[in-house]
Amino acid sequence: MSWVESASEGGRPLGMVSNWKSDNPWTALVPLDLSSLHLFQADFDRLLLLDLRVCVAPNIEFLRESGVPNENIMVLLKYRPRAFMTSNDRFREIVKEVEEMGFNPLRKKVVIAVHAFRAMSKSTWEKKVEVYKKWGLSEDEILVALGKHPGCMMVSEHKIKEVMNFFVNKMGWESSFVPRNSLLVSLSLENRIVPRCAVYQVLLSKGLINSNNQSF
């Protein structure tokens, strides 16, 4: 009986493996500290059902060959294990696309970008790019936004439109403000952005800050 099968007996989830020892296939294939990995994501259970040598190990190894440190690979395994549920050919294409966009393999943003590319189809990606372009952003500015915070491409097209509309039409700021502060696209408009901007406008009206101070 395999370690996966034995872990599933007794009604426990496959991910809740108490006997996480050096003889399990993960330790042999993936020399990372995986001792607590099963605690983080239910999706990890599905990963355990795959043929690790065929489906997972080549993807992890390709990240290493591309210069991604083990600790950053671990981030992807912990929080977005589905990224590895991708065919080896497609996974390589995604990593190469991310590299061509100028992401530094030594930084965690590269694995966030890999997840972002993997999480949507190419047509969906292109539609989101077009939404940004309709607000006057160039491809270079969109790349800047992506480099600062890849999550700016993981929200819906509607959310992108809402955020751009708020900053450009309601705050009266240049559209280029958004790619320079692309983390804002991922924040809640109602709970985070609008209240902060309300405080900003009060401070501005009282002369406590100047209009060039657009920090959050």
Automatic annotation (TrEMBL):
GO BP annotations listed: DNA-templated transcription termination
Leader sequence residues: none
UniProt xrefs under Pfam families: mTERF
Assigned keywords, A-Z: Transcription, Transcription regulation, Transcription termination, Transit peptide
MF GO annotations: nucleic acid binding
UniProt xrefs under InterPro entries: MTERF (IPR003690), MTERF_sf (IPR038538)
Protein family: Belongs to the mTERF family.
Entry-linked PANTHER family: CGI-12 PROTEIN-RELATED, TRANSCRIPTION TERMINATION FACTOR MTERF15, MITOCHONDRIAL-LIKE
Designated name of the protein: Uncharacterized protein
Species whose genome carries this gene: Camellia sinensis (Tea plant)
